[in-house]
From TrEMBL:
Hydrolase is among the record's keywords: no
Gene name of the encoded protein: rlmH
Any single GO CC term annotated in Swiss-Prot or TrEMBL for this entry: cytoplasm
Pfam families: SPOUT_MTase (PF02590)
Family from the record: Belongs to the RNA methyltransferase RlmH family.
Quaternary structure (record): Homodimer.
HAMAP family according to UniProt: 23SrRNA_methyltr_H
Keywords per UniProt: Cytoplasm, Methyltransferase, rRNA processing, S-adenosyl-L-methionine, Transferase
GO molecular function, one term: rRNA (pseudouridine-N3-)-methyltransferase activity
Function, as annotated: Specifically methylates the pseudouridine at position 1915 (m3Psi1915) in 23S rRNA.
Binding site for S-adenosyl-L-methionine: 73, 105, 124-129
Native organism taxonomy: Bacteria, Pseudomonadati, Bacteroidota, Sphingobacteriia, Sphingobacteriales
Main location: cytoplasm
Annotated organism of origin: Mucilaginibacter aquatilis
Name the UniProt record assigns to this protein: Ribosomal RNA large subunit methyltransferase H
Amino acid sequence: MKIVLLTVGKTEDAYIKDGIEKFVKRLKHYTKLEIVDLPELKNTKALTQEQQKTKEAELILKKLSTTDHVVLLDEKGMEFSSVQFADYIDKKAIGSTQSLVFIIGGPYGFDATVYQRANAQLALSRMTFSHQMVRLFFVEQLYRAFSIIKGEPYHHQ
């Protein structure tokens, strides 16, 4: 199973990039992870929030195939413990999921068309984090999930 993290915008802070790279490198032992950064919109001051979400949706939807299992990282999504998230990943890997795509949207969330395309929504927390921090938290949790699946000592209960 291939896992894709699709994001709107790039990670700018070096310490966050370093953290992401650390976990991406570790994940290579378990799965193929591809991080796709979509370009941030230009001249957004002339656009409403809804117009920005619509334009971001166009970019997001172009990157998806009909066979992708799409999970939006969204504050209104289902909440898992790390063990429950590992179980979710494991079930997708055992099942017929070929490509599992997690999406981090722009600053205003997702357009209705992206919600309609999604198979699920996942909240990393009920707290709000910057989009850059969410990337790091997500790849760490993905690594943790695989270490749980493999019974390795990274995760402690």
